[in-house]
Write a structure and sequence with these properties.
Blueprint (H helix, E strand, L loop, with lengths): L1 E10 L8 H7 L1 H23 L4 E8 L4 H6 L5 E4 L5 H12 L3 E7 L8 H8 L4 E4 L5 E7 L18 H11 L5 E2 L9 H12 L10 H10 L8
Parallel strand pairs: 1-2, 1-4, 2-3, 5-7
Antiparallel strand pairs: 4-6, 5-6
């Protein structure tokens, strides 16, 4: 039994289907290109984290199957469908499935291409932790196997700025003390592109964890991106 399942939630990056708010600012095709770059970077980064062993990378795909997934997420990725229902039901389904073969389960969204590899490693070593975002949601959640975990996803006002606080409250009521990681950010709006560009501009592109596909796509779809020599 591997100790940790790392479950990445992703949508097939088709124009008009992903990053709709961002698409209104930079165009649907450009938004889809960025979304694809986030996914491809995540595929590479998380496999590198998994390589020492003990970590199983899983893609919770919407929809599945789809040719994009088999191209972008080859072995050792395992591709599973997200299934029906709101985000809470889909998260609960992923945890229930992965607890069948893992002691801990981490779920991550695909809207956070700049999560540093070192911080990701620390997060994946946690027993119970949450990684909040500045919009009131969270980028990642990791929980140890125990009865009643899926109650954390019930009654949450998804896609609002109350998600993080409500989740922490559900955890407290369930007797789960969540370690709170430093706040990070989503990339959902045009203003987020400037934040992402500044973030990546300050990093070493030779670092194995540098999101190269995202940096290149950002330069193609958003001319205001700072240049890199």
């Amino acid at each position: 039994m591997n100790p940790v399942a790392l479950v990445l939630f992703g949508k097939v990056p088709l124009p008009g289907r992903v990053k709709t708010r961002l698409g209104r600012a930079i165009g649907r095709e450009n938004a889809a290109l960025l979304s694809e770059s986030f996914l491809r970077d995540a595929s590479r980064t998380f496999v590198a984290l998994a390589s020492p062993g003990g970590l199983s990378p899983v893609l919770a795909a919407d929809p599945a199957p789809h040719p994009f997934w088999t191209d972008a997420f080859p072995h050792p990725w395992r591709i599973e469908p997200q299934g029906e229902g709101d985000l809470g039901r889909r998260l609960a389904r992923a945890f229930e499935r992965e607890f069948g073969g893992h002691e801990r389960v981490a779920v991550l969204g695909s809207d956070h291409p700049a999560l540093p590899a070192d911080a990701l490693r620390r997060f994946l070593e946690s027993s119970d932790a949450i990684w909040p975002t500045r919009d009131g949601g969270y980028a990642a959640l990791i929980l140890g196997r125990r009865p009643g975990v899926t109650a954390l996803f019930e009654g949450i006002e998804w896609s609002t700025d109350a998600v993080f606080e409500q989740t922490v409250d559900r955890a407290r009521r369930a007797g789960i003390a969540l370690e709170v990681f430093p706040e990070t950010y989503d990339v959902d709006r045009e203003s987020d592109l400037e934040l992402l560009a500044r973030d990546l501009e300050g990093r070493d592109p030779a670092d194995p964890g540098f999101p190269r596909a995202t940096w290149e796509a950002l330069g193609s779809v958003w001319p205001a991106r700072p240049g890199r020599t």
